[in-house]
Amino acid sequence: MDRLNISLDTLRPDRFAAMTRLGTLQDVLAGIKAAEAAGFRNLKFDTVLIGGFNDDEIEDFVNLSREHPWEMRFIELMPMGPCAGWDRSRFLPAETVLDRMAELEPIEAQGVARRYQLPGALGTVGLISPVSHDFCADCRRIRVTADGKLKGCLHSREEIPLRGLHGQALEDAVRRGILHKPERHHLTERSSDTPRNMNQIGG
Fold this sequence. Notes:
By secondary structure, this protein is of the alpha/beta class. It contains five helices and nine strands.
């Protein structure tokens, strides 16, 4: 392993405790220092934009990229799992970041993330917009769940069992999952089709 993605949706201890219900923000910050001391560089931080919860922290997150060689990535909240029933005011387009931080300048994209940088900053800012900017045509991802199912799309109901497969059978199943990736998701029309919560799917 040579890189880390760290989920961090708030920089405020009280909000962190309310969201996670365990652990402390201080533990996370100590873990970040330990990761850098262990030699990990160019850390990526994933922050889900949530209206009325952390949208007043956008500037704080972006400013972390001034002094650190980190990529602060903002991800649109997706209507899936418990979030599917949330009030629509909770869903913020990633453009909110650009509206709040007008000095951000575009740089080369990376994967599905549109990337920006503050003048003179050591780090970068990434915007991942699965709802407002459908990037399905450029998606090259498949996912394997902890219980051994292959998902060609995060939001698809279709899953291909991989447990117990070996050799050619395993290769054929993975190839089938890749070739049958859905053309697009339907998040602008309805909630995600997957019956799973995000923590049951993983990256």
